[in-house]
Amino acid sequence: MVDSYFGLSDCITQGAEAAGWKSKWKGWETPVAVNGAKKRGIGFGAMVHVGGGGFFIGQASAIVKVNRDGTIQLICGACCSGNAIHTTQVQVCAESMGVPYEDVYETFGDTDSAMWVVGNYASRTAHSHAIAVKAACEKAKAQLFETAAGILEATVEELDIKDRSVFVKEAPQRAVSLKDIMAARALQDVVGSAGTHSIMEGGAIFGAQFAEVEVDTETGEVEVLKVVAAHDVGTAINPAVCEAQLEGGVMQGGLGYALTEELVIDPTSGAALNPNFLDYKVKTAMDTPEIDPIIIEAYEPKAAYGIKGLGEPPLVPTAPAVLGAIRNAIGIDFTEIPVTPDKILKALGKV
């Protein structure tokens, strides 16, 4: 983990090393390699994204309830949109409440039981909601500690929580389980709720990507051989989720945006001329290059456990990296995307 929340330099240096930049880059006009009509190039793109929310979109809320058997119920208004919030927020709750992951039962996106939240956008869901979940957990823990203090004959300040129990920090053998605390409370529930508003201190998420491509100067086709995606995620509370976000982002928006996806509009009627996936060319699994996801952990000091967001950032630097690689391969700088074979052949003077 880097010491500063500014992780851009680490994204660039570690990404460049993984891509072999020093050995492959020979200047804009010198390809990495030439094999007949095919020329290989390497390119680089970096990005900064707001990520943490601010003003309106930094709002989040959560409710945490301790059940009679010592398990935890987490209620959150956010819904899952492919961002694995069901996993990451349960992890935050479990860590905060000192219980295993499987002891947390979650309810997400239920407007009947959850407090109001803003939608899932701006890559702020993991960051913003983790703050709310942790704050709700702190309120629930305060109630547990109040009861446990009487049982353990200690002050609230002397207590901590771990392994399904509240214990005395200086004498961990003096402990009481959450189940026994709830039994001692009789009919008194333990419920913590929080509505929070977050603005990241650094205000940004950083990333860098490196793309290696091969351009066929006879057909204009571009084959993406490899993409290195190095991104600052704050704290990677679930590395598998982070890697999936990086790989999915590169494919979902980055490569298609750079090379194939273009919504064609009739200038007279305003109607879309390619409103289906036969004519609107989306990249598929068959087009997937080697993707090397690199997680940079640059701690965010105002976040719960240092967490940042990672929804949209993987889509951002892919196209610049690919276009830079094309320029390195054939010496032509394209300023419009997607860079399709006909555009390449026209720029080469072959059509």
Comma- or semicolon-separated keywords:
five-stranded mixed β-sheet; 351 residues; four-stranded mixed β-sheet; single chain; alpha+beta; 25% strand; Aldehyde Oxidoreductase, domain 4; 30% helix
Describe the structure.
It contains eight helices and twelve strands. It is of the alpha+beta class. It has helices at residues 8-19, 21-24, 85-97, 125-152, 178-184, 239-259, 318-330, 341-347, and strands at residues 33-35, 38-49, 59-66, 72-76, 104-108, 159-162, 165-168, 171-177, 190-197, 205-216, 222-232, 290-296. Strand 3 and strand 4 form a beta hairpin. It has two domains: 8-51 and 201-347, Aldehyde Oxidoreductase, domain 4; 59-197, Aldehyde Oxidoreductase, domain 4 (2-Layer Sandwich).
Give the helix/strand layout.
Blueprint: H1 8-19, H2 21-24, E1 33-35, E2 38-49, E3 59-66, E4 72-76, H3 85-97, E5 104-108, H4 125-152, E6 159-162, E7 165-168, E8 171-177, H5 178-184, E9 190-197, E10 205-216, E11 222-232, H6 239-259, E12 290-296, H7 318-330, H8 341-347
Parallel strand pairs: 4-5, 11-12
Antiparallel strand pairs: 1-2, 2-10, 3-4, 3-9, 6-7, 7-8, 10-11
Helix pairs in contact: 3-4, 4-5, 6-7
How would you concisely characterize the structure shown here?
The chain has 351 residues and is an alpha+beta fold.
Characterize the overall form: elongated
Give start-end ranges of low-pLDDT stretches: none
In total, the number of strands is 12
Distance between the termini: 51 Å
- CATH topology of the largest domain, anyone? Aldehyde Oxidoreductase, domain 4
What string, H for helix and E for strand, traces the elements in order?
Answer: HHEEEEHEHEEEHEEEHEHH
Mean pLDDT, nearest integer?
A: 90
Q: Pairing-aware structural class of the strands and helices?
A: alpha+beta
Q: What is the level-2 CATH architecture name of the largest domain?
A: 2-Layer Sandwich
Individual helix count: 8
The major β-sheet equals:
5 strands, mixed
Number of individual domains: 2
Using the coordinates above, name the CATH class of the largest domain.
Answer: Alpha Beta
